[in-house]
Structure formats: C-alpha cells, structure tokens
Amino acid sequence: MKIGALIPVRLASERLPGKAIIEVEGKPLVCHLLDRVFASKHILEKRDVIVCTTKDPSDDKLTEIVEAYGASIFRGSTDDIIKRFYDAIEMYGLDYILQVDGDDILCATEYMDLTMDALLEDDSLDIVTCEGLPLGIASKSFNRRAMKRVYASYKTGKNDTGFIYYFTKTGLCTQKIIIPVSQAHILDQARLTLDYASDLEVFTTIIKSLETTGDLLSFEKIIEHLKKYPEVMKINGDLEEEYWQRTREKARLSYVDDEGKNLNIKL
C-alpha cells in the first residue's frame, strides 16, 4: 500500500501568472504549501508528494524549484487534470492519494490527516472531502479505485476548473464528508485561496506575521490571527461571488454513467 499526495500546479495562470513561485519571506509559495503537505503523518518521504504540472516550457522553473525542495514532479496534460492525475498515479504506483490544490497555500495539515484516516478506516469509501472550513483550507483523500472509475467515465478534456466534481457530484464514487472538528475552525469570511493580487496580499500578510512566531503549520493559529485582525480578511473579501461565478462558467463537465448515458454535472 503506497500513499502519496498530488498537487496540481502550473505557472500559466490567467489571473496571476507565476503565482506559485512568487517568494514570500524568502521562499516560493509552492514551498510553503509543500511544507504543510510534508507534515502530514501519512507522507513518509518528501518524494511521495508529487506536484502535477504540464509539459509546457513555462513550467520548467516550477519543476526545478519543486525537485530541489525534495518533492517529485509529474508533467502531463495542460488542461486535462483527470488524465494528469491518472497518469501520475500509474507512474508512481499510488494506492491512496491525498489531494491538495496548488492555490491553497495554507491548506490545513490537520484535515489532510483526517481525510486520509477516514478513507483508510473504511474500505467502502472512495473519497473523503471536507465541508464548512474556510475556502482554501480543505483537502481531499481518494483511492486508486475512485481514480479508475472517474477516468473510465469522464468526457470533458478541459477540466482544470472543477475536476473534483467528477468524484463528488456524479455518483461514481462513495463519499464521506468531514466537517470542522471544532467551532474554532469555522470562519466563513476567510478566503484563503490564491487567484488574485489581493489574495496574494492576504497570504503575504499572514505568512509574514506567523513566520516570526513559528506557528505557520498551525491551522488554529491562522484562524486566531484572522479573528484578531479581521481587516486582513477584508483585503480579498469582495472576491467570493466573482470566484464562484467563474467556477460555474468554466466547470461545464460531462461524463458517462453506468448505463452508458451522457450526462452533465449539475452545480
């Protein structure tokens, strides 16, 4: 049984190009994220964390940074993340996959462990996700069986937005949802994903503040900091509607069900 992590990242972002390798406190943002994934109790070696990027030359610099930091690289399809993931899983021989989005720089290690714990404890499950946490904090865990089911059924080749819906909104996979384990983890106003320049300002502010205390890996400390300084959340607080509207417009995904019917995923 082999457990690994998959993180989709590419530098040719429409809204904030090269965001993954922007340096904050002397370290590329992707490395801040890698630190959090390395800290998962289910990741035994750094090389079991695989950044899934593209074959485009624009991602050469990302590849250099990631490999120098100790993680692994898989280079595949530009827009088809389902195929990128499937091929990476086959190449690295993964049985269970911790999946973290590349934009979620402060993704909570605690919930990475919780999702994988739940998946390993119940063989009837295909995927475990989180709900109720601030945007950008949650992760998912799924198994090879789920990946094979999705790969056999998906139809839309451009699925870089909304790819996870193939696992969670099609009925192809058996799902469990993890909710916040503490009221202290709930903060609906917080937006902690990296899409826009104002998101970058939020991450920079948080990282610079918490780096000095040594608490960067503590999700609870991040939430405590935001509650103490609510003005930080206001920096990007007006982006939620735009973010979800864009997701709805781009995530037009289709698949084939068990009866051979062509269906669209409903958001």
Describe this protein's structure.
The protein is α/β, with parallel strands linked by helices. The chain has one domain (3-264): Spore Coat Polysaccharide Biosynthesis Protein SpsA, Chain A (Alpha-Beta Complex), CATH 3.90.550.10. The protein contains 10 helices and 11 strands. The protein has helices at residues 29-38, 60-68, 81-92, 109-121, 144-153, 165-168, 197-211, 219-228, 231-234, 240-250; strands at 3-8, 23-24, 27-28, 49-54, 72-76, 96-99, 127-130, 140-143, 175-178, 254-256, 262-264. Strands 5-4-1-6-8-7-9 form a 7-stranded mixed beta sheet, with helices on both faces. A two-stranded antiparallel ribbon has the order 2-3. A two-stranded antiparallel sheet has the order 10-11. Strand 2 (23-24) and strand 3 (27-28) form a beta hairpin. Helix 3 packs across helix 5 (144-153). The protein is globular and about 55 Å long. The mean pLDDT is 95.
Describe what is shown at a glance.
The chain has 267 residues and is of the alpha/beta class. It is built from ten helices and eleven strands. 37% of the residues lie in helices and 16% in strands.
Topology:
Elements: E1 3-8, E2 23-24, E3 27-28, H1 29-38, E4 49-54, H2 60-68, E5 72-76, H3 81-92, E6 96-99, H4 109-121, E7 127-130, E8 140-143, H5 144-153, H6 165-168, E9 175-178, H7 197-211, H8 219-228, H9 231-234, H10 240-250, E10 254-256, E11 262-264
Parallel strand pairs: 1-4, 1-6, 4-5, 7-9
Antiparallel strand pairs: 2-3, 6-8, 7-8, 10-11
Helix pairs in contact: 3-5
Question: Which descriptors apply to this entry?
Answer:
Spore Coat Polysaccharide Biosynthesis Protein SpsA, Chain A, 10 helices, 7-stranded mixed β-sheet, 267 residues, alpha/beta
